[in-house]
Design brief:
Blueprint: H1 2-16, E1 22-29, E2 32-45, E3 50-54, E4 60-62, H2 68-71, H3 73-77, H4 80-84, H5 88-94, H6 102-115, H7 130-134, H8 153-165, H9 179-192, E5 200-203, E6 209-214, H10 215-226, H11 233-248, H12 250-253, H13 259-267, E7 271-276, E8 280-285, E9 290-296, H14 304-314, H15 325-328, E10 329-333, E11 339-345, E12 350-351
Antiparallel strand pairs: 1-2, 1-11, 2-3, 2-9, 3-12, 4-6, 5-6, 7-8, 8-9, 10-11
């Protein structure tokens, strides 16, 4: 009798368990699977209805840099564009993660000049520009990069501008208790339709506050971004400015050869994407008014491109597999640049409610 009761309890526990991450991509070498990347996908409409999913769409994880389009909203709502005359190109780089290309640095310099601050006022730190990793290059000997080359320098410049508008000391612009950061939190809460009290705060790689929310709420934020024309008031106008900036200036959001830029180039504004560290990718589908959020659990972004293109194909988008062959079926190369394997998507979207 006891054995029977134990068995029933086990079955009930399994049935009520939360959905688990699923295999999103597999890495092949010599014709066999060498590694598997697990994770989850959420596809949501602008009303918050889950349309499709894979794995656990309710998993709570950090937005990382995928939250940048929402972090700049407060600056726009508080009159930053009118006060400083920010252009769409400048808004795009505030919402983006640039590669440190010369055209990126020129735009960051313009923002610094308009806000009347300097590179030394930024608190994002330094790193080798993403341009070098993407192009498989090594920086010139003894070459040093200041904070303008950090992929988040646009965002930080905008945060300082907001802090000054709100009458605060620019040195405190990263303090999560400051008016500026609390205002940004409010914008993220509104766009993702989740109470601020339920958003877990952490510290991003650039030292700015960042937000952990359920994956489906990330997708909802991007669905609302994709449907910005339907939003009302100052908030709606701010969202429209961000969307238009990202569509018109995708190079400022990302950089050459990077996934967000590739998506912009190949889908003519129908896909508006923003990547985040630790293998997060979010994008809005402007022709459907849907949002998609993807998280690969192990934090490796190497499989993200095949997963994204597979998701898009399953949602009805035509993929030029010949033109995009190195992204759809990502080659694995050794140190001699010889192709020794490939990464292929294995994600299977499930229709919600079925």
């Amino acid at each position: 009798m006891r054995k029977t009761e134990t068995k029933k309890t086990t079955i009930a526990s399994t049935k009520n368990a939360a959905p688990r991450p699923t295999a999103l991509a597999k890495v092949y070498r010599g014709g066999i699977v060498e590694s598997i990347h697990y994770g989850s996908v959420a596809v949501v409409d602008a009303k918050g209805k889950l349309k499709y999913y894979a794995g656990n769409p309710n998993v709570v994880t950090f937005f990382r840099s995928a939250s940048k389009p929402f972090q700049v909203l407060a600056l726009i709502e508080e009159g930053g564009v009118e006060r400083h005359g920010f252009t769409a190109e400048e808004i795009a780089i505030m919402a983006g993660s640039h590669s440190g290309q010369p055209e990126h640095i020129a735009v960051v310099d313009r923002i610094l000049q308009k806000v009347e601050i300097s590179e030394a006022d930024l608190q994002c730190g330094t790193h080798i520009p993403l341009y070098y990793a993407v192009h498989n290059k090594t920086p010139e000997a003894k070459r040093k990069f200041d904070q303008r080359y950090h992929n988040c320098s646009g965002k930080h410049s905008g945060m300082i501008a907001l802090s000054l508008i709100m009458g605060e000391n620019k040195a405190d612009y990263l303090d999560r208790k400051s008016k500026a950061q609390r205002r940004i939190l409010r914008s993220v809460s509104e766009i993702c339709q989740i109470p601020a009290s339920r958003i877990v705060l952490g510290t991003d790689g650039c030292s700015a506050p960042n937000f952990a929310v359920p994956l489906k709420n990330m997708a909802l934020g991007f669905a609302r971004l994709a449907s910005a024309s339907k939003l009302k008031g100052k908030f709606g106008m701010a969202m429209q400015k961000v969307l238009l900036a990202m569509v018109e200036h995708p190079l400022m959001v990302s950089g050459e050869k990077r996934l967000d830029y590739i998506l912009a180039q190949n889908f003519s504004g129908r896909v508006v994407a923003k990547a985040g560290a630790e293998a997060v990718e979010c994008f809005g589908l402007t022709d459907k008014g849907w949002g998609v959020a993807i998280k690969i659990d192990d934090g490796s972004s190497r499989a993200m491109a095949p997963v994204v293109f597979s998701v898009l194909k399953q949602l009805g988008y035509k993929i030029d597999t010949e033109k995009l062959k190195d992204y759809v079926r990502l080659p694995v190369k050794n140190y001699r640049r010889t192709v020794v394997g490939q990464i292929e998507a294995s994600v299977k979207l499930e229709k919600a409610g079925v």
